[in-house]
Amino acid sequence: MKENSIPKRSYKTTLTEVQRFWNFVDKTSYCWLWTGTQVGKGYGYFRINNPRKKILAHRYSYQLHFGKFPEYLQVMHICDNPLCVNPKHLKTGTNMDNVKDMMNKGRNPKGENHYKRKRYLEKINDKNSSL
Asked: CA torsion 58→59→65→66, rounded to 10°?
């Protein structure tokens, strides 16, 4: 070995994948909150080992407790908390099931809260300012 060279570090983890998962979970009295990395809209994600990829934390929790399920199914939160990984708060469903659930609970954006509203108002303002 060269005099100034640094030995290569071994990246072998001592914790199992499941142990690593639980290190990022805070079990509160109701929801089990993911404390690890988050992605868009506040969902947690977790890096799995084999195959090496990222998976949404609530999907991993569902699979851990209930077994594998078809990729086309979504894992829905009964509690409407995207960081929750409590298996009692998770259920599978199609995209249509998820949309119906969102609409039944009044979580779909309407009126001034709709994402297209701002763009619509900008177009009107641009049109009026050019007159």
From this structure: 140
Q: For residue 75, count other CB atoms closer than 10 A to its CB.
A: 21
Top-tier CATH class for 17-129: alpha beta
Distance of CA 24 to the CA centre of its chain: 13
Return the ∠ at Cα 69 (arms to 58 and 105), rounded to 5°: 50
- Rounded Cα distance, 83 and 119, in Å: 30
Distance, in Å, from the CA atom of 8 to the CA atom of 58, rounded to the nearest integer, reads 35
Token pair listed for 116? 């297209």
Per-position pLDDT tens, the chain of length 131: 455 555 454 555 578 899 999 999 999 999 999 999 999 889 999 999 877 899 999 999 999 999 999 999 999 999 999 999 999 999 999 999 999 998 888 777 666 665 666 666 676 666 666 66
